[in-house]
Amino acid sequence: MPAAVKILALALALIGSSVTLHALERWKIQYLYDEPGANFDIRDLACPSAQRCVAAGVITDRKERQQGEVVVSSDGGRHWSQYDVKEHPVSLFFLNDTLGWMVTDRGLWSTVEGGRSWTKLENRKGILRTHFLDANHGYIAGTASLFAETLDGGKTWTARQEAHATAPNARAVNFDSITFLDAHGIVVGEIDASLAGADAVYPFVASEIDPKRKHIIILETFDSGKTWMTRSIPFDAGLARLAISKQGFVLSVLVYSDPKGPLASAVFQTTLGQPNSRLIFGERDRAVTDVAIFDDESGLLTAVEPPGNSPQVPIPGKLKILRSRNLKVWQEMDVDYRALAQEAMISAPDARHIWVATDTGAILGLTDAN
Questions:
Q1: What would the mean pLDDT of 85-111 be, rounded to a whole number?
Q2: What pTM was estimated for this model as a whole?
């Protein structure tokens, strides 16, 4: 066989094997809470490494009694341990395999044991998110313009004045997202027009608050929080998720409330420093709930296909997971048929180790079908 033919045959064999391996990948349920008459509403998922994964949420039993719960895996999702917690978890953040923080309905907790035990740091209602840059330097954000900083690991907190400067009525702004990539951080909040008042004028809003439109408040830093810039963007949708890439752009998941609108949700790509955004995913019959971007510029998103004709139907639908190698073409992946959800979230230390959790008590891992 001529050398050129051998090379061509080898190339075709390699292409065929890669396609076969891709086809064998599937999302398999690794943990499922299936207590009869009860539901485990997983509210956040944090997987800081290929081995460690922590999920937190609230179990509601058939008598409507609620219990805060945390589940932990230390072997890549093969085994899970379940722990009761005293309050109702809201969100998680982990700095590494052992050190993490949990926001609850009544405060902030920390763990140095990878989620197996927790210590109360802060008694405060209204916290929605936390993010730590190191063991001492961190932020909390939440309702009523809450945005505060700690430099001593959470022993004391100082309110950042940039947040209070965004609103004459502090109660009208809720900050529900903190995202950092190295020194670049973005905090996102939304103005509640019903609390703002019909004639409210905000420093960073071009005109009076229009109760028919959403207004997003954005705090942004490029120096780990030493200085913050503030701006506002009028939106006709809610900002559900935000992801910063190392390639210099941001992915945003927008959710539309109009059931008769052309899209249930949409994912936009925005290059930092540029005014325009590019729609990279949007479908009428699928509501995107989360998006992730990896170092190799590939992306992953979770979406729910509702059982009815409207994405606003409050009934769990089929979980869909799609992947893109270039953020242009999205391919649907094989997902365990039992996976139903209204909300699903992604956590991944890298592009090869990825987990997805649902508000119906399931945690899925990416495995080979065989």
A1: 98
A2: 0.86
Phi, psi of 22 (to 5 degrees): -60, -40
Nearest to 57 by CA among 28, 85, 31: 85
Nearest to 49 by CA among 17, 95, 82: 95
Helix residue spans in the chain (DSSP H): 3-24, 161-164, 193-196
**Residue 14 banded pLDDT, cuts 50, 70, 90:** very low
185: which 2 tokens?
Answer: 């951080």
Nearest to 114 by CA among 123, 102, 103, 125: 102
Give 279's Cβ-side CA count (13 Å radius). 7
Residue 315 has a pLDDT of 84
Query: What is the structure's pLDDT at 11?
Result: 32
Domain ranges for the chain: 1-30+251-370
Residue 220 CB coordination number (10 Å): 16
Do 75 and 68 contact (CB within 8 A), yes or no?
Answer: no
Give phi and psi for 210, each to the nearest 5. Answer: -95, 115
